[in-house]
Amino acid sequence: TAFARVADVRQQLTPVMDREIESELWLIGLGAGQKRLGGSVLAQCYQQFGNSSPDLDEAQTLKSFFDLIQAARADQLLLAYHDRSDGGAFAAACEMAFASRMGLELNLDGWGDNAFAALFNEELGAIVQVAAEDRAAFADLVNRHDLTHCAQRIGKPIAAPVVRVLEERAVLAEWLWKELFDAWWSVTHAMQRLRDNPECADEERAARREFSDPGLVPSLTFAPAQAPAILTGAKPRVAILREQGVNSHYEMAAAFDKAGFTAVDVHMTDLIAGRIRLEQFAGLAACGGFSYGDVLGAGRGWATSILERPALREQFAAFFARPDSFSLGVCNGCQMFAQLKGLIPGAEHWPRFLRNRSEQFEARLSLVEVVESPSIFFRDMAGSRIPIVVSHGEGRAAFDAPEDQSQARIALRFVDGHGALATQYPANPNGSPEGIAGLTSSDGRSTLLMPHPERAHRTVQMSWHPDGWGESSPWQQLFHNARNWVG
């Protein structure tokens, strides 16, 4: 594992190809045409070890490759990037096709007389996607870095759900996209069925193998504000509440500060010792993490530390009862607030949160829809579908009675790429009924969310987002709404 400083994380390159532009794939192979197969996956498949194995023959070649990629990225010539590693160029190109829901056409012209070796050798290198109109500019850049002998055009992405290999315009081999995807996913699926809930493993495989799956499709019903519409200059105080094991307090504080609040770090020991009292704050945000290591279950230990201390219990009840106060519980804080529902006006129908249906901790970027509700945080955001960070092991909502589920005020729910209610895994990552991802109290002052808006309040925090989103993601609006509500 390694890490390094980068100038701008927004300039990252991924294997996901651009679907909207005519383009071609280039292989930059540092073996300079060599096709050594020793130790390769291909050799293993034929129960061989092989003789010569790939190597870096000239250290300068690697430096030149690095400089080329940096320069091409700076000139915005690269649309996608994937290293050539296990399985060689064929596997790398297929993985780009799988990630992008695109077909593939590879052309072996100029690769030599051994198609197997050309496709499956694991010499150092990478495949990049370049716009067809940028071919000359990229080729010139390759030449300037003295890598012409290492670079060649090898094919292009196509819209049809097939992967085909050509030589001199003749089709040497062709597979359906799903056929290759199933082979590629088979080991993952088998492991997942043994390790996780097998039904979830089957549902994920079915979802991933759909060539027409649109993926995450955001849709906004509001224009994200870059700053709250407050002209008083006042900065109301909000308590960023944390307990041992909580780990999202910095992001939460940053989001509230950006919205015009003064975020104050408040540890449970501060309240227990009497150093800080909740009456000093306009708002309270309970943050995500793993309080008490989740040993007692979702947020139960944290809630118990309040409920079993009469003075602290009274202090929380008084804060929740104040008509000018607001509260937000996210992830572990959501679980904890759900245990405190007896202290929160209008929260009597809230559920408990149990182990995810997948039987695993879920960490992914999921799509949610804002539901019409009285929540002060989601004012004028209803109907919007926005990607959000999910990071929890116990997020499945479970109601004490059927009437509680029917009367609970849902504020956020998981949806699929078509905007339909997500009932299957992984679009619904925890198995909550009705795709429940967040709820609010009857007056909207207290809101629970299992996903993390604070971990996505800046666009740069998202592992993917549409082109054109500015510095603040749509989730910053949630915090601006709270500031506007306080007035």
Structure notes:
- The chain contains 14 helices and 18 strands.
- The strands form three sheets. It has a nine-stranded mixed beta sheet with strand order 9-8-10-11-18-17-16-13-14.
- Helix content is 29%, strand content 21%.
- The mean pLDDT is 94.
- The protein starts with 22 loop residues before the first strand and ends with a helix.
- With 487 residues, it is of the alpha/beta class.
- It has helices spanning 41-45, 59-74, 88-100, 115-120, 135-144, 177-195, 198-208, 249-258, 268-273, 300-307, 310-321, 332-339, 402-407, 476-486; strands at 23-29, 80-83, 103-107, 125-131, 151-158, 162-167, 170-176, 237-242, 262-267, 283-286, 326-330, 352-354, 362-370, 385-392, 396-398, 409-414, 436-440, 446-449.
- The longest helix is centred in the middle third of the chain and has 19 residues, at 177-195.
- Helix 6 (177-195) runs antiparallel to helix 7 and helix 10 (300-307) crosses helix 12.
List the helices and strands and how they pair.
Blueprint: E1 23-29, H1 41-45, H2 59-74, E2 80-83, H3 88-100, E3 103-107, H4 115-120, E4 125-131, H5 135-144, E5 151-158, E6 162-167, E7 170-176, H6 177-195, H7 198-208, E8 237-242, H8 249-258, E9 262-267, H9 268-273, E10 283-286, H10 300-307, H11 310-321, E11 326-330, H12 332-339, E12 352-354, E13 362-370, E14 385-392, E15 396-398, H13 402-407, E16 409-414, E17 436-440, E18 446-449, H14 476-486
Question: Can you summarize this structure?
Answer:
Helix content is about 30%, strand content about 20%.
